[in-house]
Task: inverse folding
């Protein structure tokens, strides 16, 4: 069996042989003998590394016996082995002119065309078709060639023909059960069909026969996650990092899975190992920012992201990727109440990626929050010239108008956007939220009720309807809406938390309230808003120790959330920690002031200060 080396381009080694049609007369016995001698000499010369001499010998053999297809097939294989694609194709075609079913010629042509497809990134459909056609002609189920079958399986996957890939790969695996690469490719074929259990089982076989290959273990873990077996996937990855403790890829995959499962402490531990192993790399620190963000550890996030951004700029990372890092940094600054720092980061992001809608929208929103409406208008105007009918930009335009007090103009903007984007649920929700923010509850309800008729399966519309009812203090209707969301999806954490908090805030059915919020936290354990809800429900139950634990965690996360700081301060005041209560109420007044009674907080703050002086 001739060994085929993957072609990466024509090296130009030796002159191509121009094949002539097979002679009509058979060669003499003497010529056949001389041809055989030249053929054997060519093999010997190739074995010694003198491929130019081997080409000359094969050429001489072909001239002496122009009817022999095997000589041309051998010459094609030589050209293929030294990566001369075009001469290899010409010689293989010459073999097929003499013997249309020459298996070796078909094999060489198939592998050469397949290598050309790989070198071009799969861009040449004609080469792809030729590769499959010739490899199928060379296919021998009785004694499958591993390289041929593996290549054919890959090509079938490239053409999204997973069933054919599975058939081909099973043939070679039946003949060679320990062929780890074929097992891994077979697993990928099952993945392509969404057959995750089958993929997992095959990957496990690949791991058993190729235990040293970390890639198989990572692929097995991914398949197990998709098969709904994340705990088994964790075991696989933990075994991997034990087996390969100095390989960053395993730690990275483990950290990603721990984060996906909201095991934040374990995720952080794993990713810090990645950073140790790749001190100049960016993927570890970037994943760490995702973990910190999931825990609302914004100050830590700022401290990590600053050096990453500087390193990325020095390393000439793609500007759009640096802009994405700056967006994350800006969001952390925003959560910490530092609008100037957030605006600075986003301005730098806009310089790097001036047409990025996400950057433009985030910058405009922070300008609005900072009360810098003219600058927000400027950003939105520039963006709208690029995208005149964009719904996100219309919402930002309306947000700026509403913040200025121009509610009628804001409504007009969103009504116009709704006419243009009637098929998008978000357009209906935006108008309803604007009505709700300005106590126009009936109009908000009407918009969402109409939207629900248009989008009967959209749970977000029903959730927003519940929120509108709650803001309008129509609690019975709000509860019905949230219950409808939970009937569709009992694990909707947003609805669980909102309903639980609403009950707690009214002081009603507190045991049920606690149960609902704890279910939300099981789904999202470090969510600061959910922790605040749980702490508030415990406070209402007079379970002050439990309330303190939850409210302190929420308060540490959501420093600018005035409602959260007010709740924490109420608890601290009740347990006579007046100095801490003062600090929390001061944070509430310095925060977003959304949803709080500012004058009420000022009165409570005064009372706490008076008690401190006693």
Result:
């Amino acid at each position: 069996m001739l060994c085929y080396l993957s072609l990466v381009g024509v090296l130009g080694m030796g002159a191509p042989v121009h094949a002539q049609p097979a002679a009509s007369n058979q060669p003499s016995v003497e010529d056949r003998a001389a041809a055989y001698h030249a053929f054997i000499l060519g093999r010997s010369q190739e074995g010694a590394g003198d491929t130019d001499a081997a080409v000359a010998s094969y050429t001489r053999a072909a001239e002496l016996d122009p009817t022999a297809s095997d000589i041309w097939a051998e010459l094609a294989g030589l050209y293929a082995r030294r990566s001369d694609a075009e001469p290899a194709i010409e010689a293989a075609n010459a073999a097929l002119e003499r013997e249309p079913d020459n298996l070796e010629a078909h094999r060489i042509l198939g592998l050469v065309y397949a290598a050309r497809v790989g070198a071009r990134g799969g861009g040449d459909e004609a080469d792809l078709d030729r590769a499959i056609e010739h490899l199928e002609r060379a296919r021998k189920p009785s004694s499958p060639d591993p390289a041929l079958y593996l290549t054919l399986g890959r090509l079938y996957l490239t053409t999204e023909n997973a069933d054919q890939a599975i058939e081909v790969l099973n043939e070679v695996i039946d003949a060679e059960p320990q062929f780890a690469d074929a097992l891994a490719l077979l697993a990928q074929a099952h993945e392509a069909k969404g057959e995750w259990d089958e993929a997992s089982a095959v990957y496990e076989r690949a791991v058993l026969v190729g235990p040293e290959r970390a890639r198989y273990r990572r692929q097995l873990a991914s398949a197990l996650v998709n098969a709904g077996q994340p705990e088994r996937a964790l075991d696989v990855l933990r075994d991997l990092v034990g087996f390969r403790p100095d390989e960053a890829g395993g730690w990275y995959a483990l950290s990603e899975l721990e984060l996906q499962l909201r095991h934040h402490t374990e995720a952080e531990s794993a990713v810090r190992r990645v950073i140790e192993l790749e001190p100049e790399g960016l993927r570890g620190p970037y994943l760490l920012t995702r973990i910190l963000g999931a825990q609302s550890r914004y100050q830590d996030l700022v401290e990590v992201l600053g050096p990453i951004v500087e390193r990325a700029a020095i390393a000439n990372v793609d500007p759009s990727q640096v802009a994405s890092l700056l967006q994350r940094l800006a969001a952390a600054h925003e959560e910490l109440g530092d609008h100037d720092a957030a605006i600075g980061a986003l301005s730098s992001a806009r310089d790097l990626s001036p047409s990025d809608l996400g950057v433009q929208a985030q910058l405009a929103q922070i300008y609005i929050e900072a009360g810098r409406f003219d600058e927000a208008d400027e950003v939105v105007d520039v963006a709208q010239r690029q995208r005149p009918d964009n719904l996100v930009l219309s919402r930002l335009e309306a947000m700026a108008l509403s913040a200025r007090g121009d509610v009628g103009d804001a409504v007009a903007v969103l009504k116009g956007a709704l006419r243009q984007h009637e098929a998008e649920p978000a357009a209906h929700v935006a108008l309803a939220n604007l009505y709700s923010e300005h106590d126009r509850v009936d109009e908000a309800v009407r918009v969402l009720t109409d939207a629900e008729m248009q989008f009967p399966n959209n749970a977000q519309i029903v959730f927003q309807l519940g929120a509108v009812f709650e803001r309008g203090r129509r609690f019975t209707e709000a509860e019905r809406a949230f219950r409808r969301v939970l009937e569709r999806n009992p694990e909707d954490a947003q609805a669980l938390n909102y309903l639980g908090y609403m009950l707690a805030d009214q002081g009603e059915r507190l045991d049920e309230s606690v149960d609902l919020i704890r279910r939300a936290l099981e789904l999202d354990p470090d969510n600061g808003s959910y922790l605040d809800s749980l702490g508030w429900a415990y406070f209402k139950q007079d379970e002050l120790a439990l309330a303190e634990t939850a409210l302190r965690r929420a308060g540490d996360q959501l420093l600018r959330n005035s409602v959260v700081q007010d709740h924490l301060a109420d608890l601290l005041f009740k347990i006579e920690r007046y100095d801490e209560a003062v600090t929390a109420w001061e944070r509430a007044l310095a925060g977003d002031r959304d949803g709080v009674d500012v004058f009420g907080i000022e009165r409570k703050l005064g009372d706490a200060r008076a008690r401190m002086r006693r």
